[in-house]
Amino acid sequence: MTPRGRRRRRQTGQISSGAAWLWLAPATALILGVVLFPAIQLFRASRGEYSITGLRTGDAGWSNYTAVLNHPSLEVVVRNTVIWVVVVVAATILISLGLAQLLIKQFPGRRIVRWAVIVPWAASLIITSQLFVLLYDYNYGIINHLLKKVGLIETSIDFLGDDRLTLASMIVVGIFVSLPFTTFVFIAGLNAIPGDVMEAARVDGASAWKRYRHVTLPLLRPALMVASVLNVIYVFNSFPIVYTLNDRNPGYAHDTTITFMYKLAFESQEKDVGMSAAAGIGNVLLILVVIAVYMKVVNWQEQTR
Amino acid sequence: MTKKSLVLAALTASSLGLAACGGGTGAGNADGGDGGDGEQATSIKLVAAEYSKDNTKAFWDEFAKKYKEESGYDLEVQIISWDNIDQQSSTMIQNNQAPDILNLNAYASYAKDGLLWSAEDVIPQESQEDILDTFVKYGTYDGKFYGFPDLASARALFYNTELFEKAGINEPPKTWDELRDAAQKITDLGDGNIGYALPLGPEESQGEFSMWLFNNGGMWKDGDSWTINSAENVETLEFLKKLDEDGLTQNNPGRTNRADAFDLFKSGKVGMVVGFSPLAAQLDEDGTVDYEPAPFPTNNGGESQTFGVTDYLMAFKKDGNQDAVKKFYELYYQPDQVNTFIEKEGFLPVTESGVERFSDNEDLKVYLETLPNAQLTPTDDPTWDKVKLAVQQNLGAAMDGDPKDVLDKLQQTAEQQ
After folding, report:
1. Which of B277, B290, B310, B328 is the most exposed place for a label (fewest CB within 10 A)?
2. Within B197-269, where are the H helices?
């Protein structure tokens, strides 16, 4: 690097690469230690052969991957994951749009309602999940109690033990815990929409629905995108809800790929760290692909507009 | 562009964060452990399971003090809940950071992997002779004694005397037919009363099923061959399925964990359940349910069998830790240590001197009489460590499916290992 070049850089407000690296060092160390190192270890584990005790007994090549792909329950687990992510994220976004619309209006007690919406976010997911296990319980759950009191049902509903209802019951909890974050993203997005645009639309005689459809929604695009991408990641990775609510059910009929990965390592008859790590690599790839596809689609729409 | 980079940043952070949480890291090729260069360890580490919040930590902390006084070695104590100990111990071994002593409900796979000291290396002869023969037998893998028991439990039939009285039943059942009749009468009382609480969910279905199949002359394993789908065992599982179909159990037994069944019994709505001494202690403390323990009924009215469980304190073989580990067991198996622990936690003794010491305890009588002849699951076979998990994840399916089919598949799993 020539002195002249360096000087010119200083003039444009840049610093020498040495100083730059010094400033970047903490962040780099963090990324290396917290992201890269575990990722490499995960990959190494996925290529290892492990005893049930956790002892590494040799190299497995790709056999852990083929074992995961040939697992008899993989199909149902993947299907559960798709339903879980799509339904939870879609429903969360729809409900949050409505909630946000309500919460930006001025009304008495708005502050309290906003706080109430945020509370589920503050609670730990495990505690929320345990709470729902109690609410849903067949023998002493409040939901069954209420339904019986009102006379809607005669015998209790087995929300978490009936195969037809388990996933749906989990999805309700998934939506419940995703609402606060999403709603507040939308509130921020709605607040950022300039009032004059709205006014112009109104002057032009656009109906409320048309204003929402053609002004509000397009301007909410960045918020919608952030909310959906982050929610897909959160919901996909959500372990506590699925694990806790599905705790009493044997087998994998209601597992997602995340709890499946955990069970492979610690609870299944395989009890195999290597297989679980291979499933973990699969999880990372899956979510990367989903997000890449999503961003591609969104970009494509932007370019064709 | 900014929104795209925001999304990208979020994506990178989250998806790679996921990698960090993935199914376990580490790749230590463990062949013995740390230390390494023949030096004497000055401190050893114990990883123990938490039997109760009040007593476990208190006991081991006190024990560590005493151990330091007597041996000069430090004892580092780490207590882990039962929910997490499997996962954490597995991670420790992956990362080549095995403790010196590990308290767990299985040992054979560890012995098979060559990780453990056997009794001849670390247990004083005197203590070895004191341990009950049953536990030595089930603690022996490949001719050597590796699975040193820390405490034991034995199961019995708990019945709600108030409900029995209401239903006009005078005696606890001695045969399965009597049990079914009693369950029918209690269910007929209505008001949500449940005849028999049957937990076949993943928590511990092998325990419940063991109790039943032992009392039908069945076994998990006979000599060297697995007998999971024997005629007796199929009959047993069919009987349980029938109980469910006739509505004599709680809802959905295939998806009820042991803890849930205990909660139901504690609520006073259940006629009978398989219990053990810690449940008795809780019931006595609550004082709301009148109950009695009784020997479990048999299918044909023969002599009642009990299902026994013991947990293990196994010793990991590391360079330089032999003497410290040996001193640990020397102290632990002294009657006033091991029996104090067992007494506080409400379990049963594992030594002959312990049986003697507890013999005048009326509450424990029903268990102690059966303990020396208790049948255990085949914990001495490393294959069982996997079969057990297969049973936990699959046995409950028999309630909605074909019992023989489920047992055939389990048999297959066991034979394939």
Report:
1. B290
2. 205-214, 231-245, 258-266
